[in-house]
Amino acid sequence: MEKNIKTGLISEVFDLISTAKLTKMGDEGKIKVWRLCRALKPIAKSFKEGIDEAREKFAPNDHFYQDFEMARQYELAKSKGEAFEGVTEEFYQEVVEQYRKFNKLVSKAVNEASEKEVTVDFEPLTDDELEMLAISNDWNFKSLDLLSEMM
After folding, report:
1. Phi, psi for residue 85 in degrees, rounded to 5
2. What percent of the chain has pLDDT over 90?
3. What tens digit of pLDDT does each residue of 9-37 get?
4. Is the pLDDT of residue 106 over 90?
5. Cβ atoms 99, 109 nearer than 8 A
6. Beta-carbon contacts of residue 7 (< 8 Å; ≥ 6 apart)
7. Which DSSP category does 20 fall into?
8. Structural domain count of the chain
9. What region, left, alpha or beta, does residue 137 occupy, with left being phi > 0 and alpha being psi -120 to 50 degrees?
10. Strand, coil or helix: what is 137?
11. Residue among 3, 14, 6, 4 at smallest CA distance from 36
12. Which of 47, 56, 57, 121 gets the most CB atoms within 10 Å of its CB?
């Protein structure tokens, strides 16, 4: 069956089923899960690489993550009433503002990528197979809902 699915959902479902236990499932269901993983893996991998590329692209400078870590340590020391050498309040505020802008740009890129639909060819699991997969794993309702949305 071919189905148009958003890449964000594909990534979440792949993360869920790629580590799922299949102990209570029959052989046919296990094969379906394995084939579904194979179909979703390249899409999920590409999606995650896109997130990494967005982080790299939108980082304001080469030392952004180091600056952010220093600002985080400064904030922690400040909350404890301790001094933190090498970081001024001005530097801290500048890094916080850079991080806000960075986070906004990355979030926008991730949201846009998550909404992109791709066509996936897979054999959906039956209700019985989904039940056996759920019984084999200790998943919460959100996880079960994601998987059933995919089917």
Report:
1. -80, 145
2. 92
3. 999 999 999 999 999 999 999 999 999 99
4. yes
5. no
6. 43, 44, 46, 47, 113, 114, 115, 116, 117, 118
7. -
8. 1
9. beta
10. coil
11. 14
12. 47
In three-state form (DSSP H/G/I as H, E/B as E, the rest C), the secondary structure along 58-87 is: HCCCCCHHHHHHHHHHHHHHHHCCCCCCCC
Question: What domain range is 53 assigned to?
Answer: 2-150
Helix (H, G, I), strand (E, B) or coil at 28: helix
Residue-wise pLDDT tens digits, 70-84: 999 999 999 998 888
Q: Number of H helices and number of E strands within the chain?
A: 6, 2
Mean pLDDT of 49-77: 95
HEC secondary structure over 115-128: HCEEEEECCCCCHH
| CB 38 within 8 Å of CB 18 | no
Distance CA 110, CA 102 (A): 12
